[in-house]
Amino acid sequence: MIHSEERRKIDQLFREVADKGMSRRQMIQRAAVLGISAQALTLAFVGVAQNAVAQGEENPLGVDPEAPLRVVIFDGGYGNEYAVNVNDTLYGEIYPDAEIDYTATVRLGPQYQSEVVAGNPPDVMDNSGADNFNTTTLYNEGQLAELTDLMEAPAYGQEGVTFADSLTPGTQALGVFDGSQHVLKYVLGMYGVWYNRALFDEMGWEYPQTWEDMLAMCQMIVDETDMAPWTYQGLYPYYIRTVFDQLVYKSGGWDAILKIDNLAEDAWTQDVAIQAMTEMQKLYTEGYILEGTEALSHTESQTFWLQGEAVFIPCGSWLENEMADVIPEGFEIVVAPVPSLTAEDQLPFAATQVSAGEDFIVFSEGENVQGGKEYLRLLFSQEGARFFTEVTGSLTAVTDAAEGLDLSIATQSVQAAIASAGADTFVAQYGTWYATLDEESQNQFSLMMIGEATPEEVSTVLQELTNEIREDESIPKFTREAPAAAGEAAPEATPAG
Fold it and tell me: What is the distance, to the nearest Å, from the Cα of residue 298 to the centroid of all Cα atoms in its chain?
């Protein structure tokens, strides 16, 4: 196995070889200067030889047309029909002699952890869902293939356009590590609060724009209907945690949310964080949450919501597709931003969590690395992305792929929310970068939302863990800054220290 530091050096070496046209002797000499062991260099040469297929316009990544390809897709809210389409009508037709070993599953980590550790991973994976791999951990272990050659390759079916230029600007920034692309994010969407527009029209309700107004509306719902104001995915607390992230971002701006991402000494004890948790807990203390929510899965809570048991639910923009089979006739699913924490928030009500999600990765130790990259080039094509939107109702990071499609009410509301937010969008990264902080913050929010921990207790626990992570030299650290100018995505993550 080639470890992460040597793999980064090898990637650097191969880039230098491509730029300077080194001879084999010069390459070996340069490898010695970089501190690459002979064994690692030999393994790298073998990998190059295995993928050394003539490149050209029809095969820009040098894919072996007869090499088998192992594809693993998370079969969650977006289903897997879009991936089957790539298997059958894109990769399968371009490389008819390549056998595709295809699996759709919801248990990525439990099912493939042993293979990854043993150095026998799939080639390409949709790394999503509750049991997914932590991408930062995979990167630190040298498991993620660098995607620079893919980013520079021609976009499939678009003459004169590179793959990188075919994607919506800013959508891939959070998949960059140490200056190179290692993760691609496919689905363009948002996390927000969902409700039934038909119900609101019938009742004459308006969606609240401040948290004070949200709580007032919750009380009105309790007083005047037999519905609960809120439910959420109790067994997966990261859904309700996104409400906290947005309250902090809107009220405290980039400085507040970046303190948490960047492991600041007052990340969780800053006033805006405690205030956000305090306001969120009122949903429980005031009796505004559907009874038993803490024991519900994502589909169970969403089903109760669709049955009219609750008015509001937090979720990402895959909600409609995930629940398509049980949406009642006349139920108009729409999304809105989390209300402002206060009327004096730094950012407007329209500010929200918008990002590209559904992480696709190519394993560096896969048997067909270049084939994995080619699979992503086809998936992220106009043709592949358009098919995805048609069957899921969700948007992708591929520019203009949804143009002219007849979009559902739900997807139209996502489009409208993203357009209204403009440059005021973000996504928190602490849960992606630090697995222990991800797990413990979910645990603490779960306790807080059933009254078993106070906001002050939660902030203390999470700040202590943050401090431990910051001081632990064995844990790689990442930092980022606020956007440099309006309309830009937050800069890529860079190693701290």
Answer: 17
Q: What pLDDT, on a 0 to 100 scale, did the predictor assign at position 57?
A: 72
Say if residue 23 is exposed, middle or buried (CB neighbours under 10 Å; 0-12, 13-18, 19+): exposed
pTM equals 0.73
What per-residue string of b and e applies to 98-129 under the rule 16 or more CB within 10 Å gives b? bebebebbeebeeebeeebeeeebbbbbbbbb
Give 28-60 pLDDT, tens digit per residue: 667 777 777 766 665 555 444 444 445 567 899
Residues of the chain with CATH 3.40.190.10: 62-188+356-421, 192-351+424-478
In whole angstroms, give the CA distance from residue 427 to residue 32. 41
Are 373 and 60 in contact, with CB atoms under 8 Å apart?
Answer: no
Give domain 192-351+424-478's CATH number out of 3.40.50.790, 3.90.420.10, 3.40.190.10, 1.20.1440.230.
3.40.190.10
CATH entry 3.40.190.10 includes domain 62-188+356-421: yes
Report the phi/psi class of residue 170: left, alpha or beta, with left for phi > 0 and alpha for psi in -120 to 50.
left
Point out the residues of the chain with pLDDT beneath 50: 21, 23, 46-53, 486-491, 497
Among residues 89, 59, 83, the alpha carbon closest in space to that of 71 is found at: 83
Burial class for 141, CB neighbours closer than 10 Å (0-12, 13-18, 19+): middle
Find where tokens 């490898």 sit: 31
As given in the structure block, the two tokens for residue 325 are: 């089979």
CA 20 from chain centre, in angstroms, equals 36
The dihedral sign for the CA sequence 63, 45, 145, 135: positive
Please tell me the distance from the alpha carbon of residue 149 to that of residue 163, in angstroms, as a whole number: 10
Asked whether the beta carbons of 351 and 417 are under 8 A apart, the reply is no
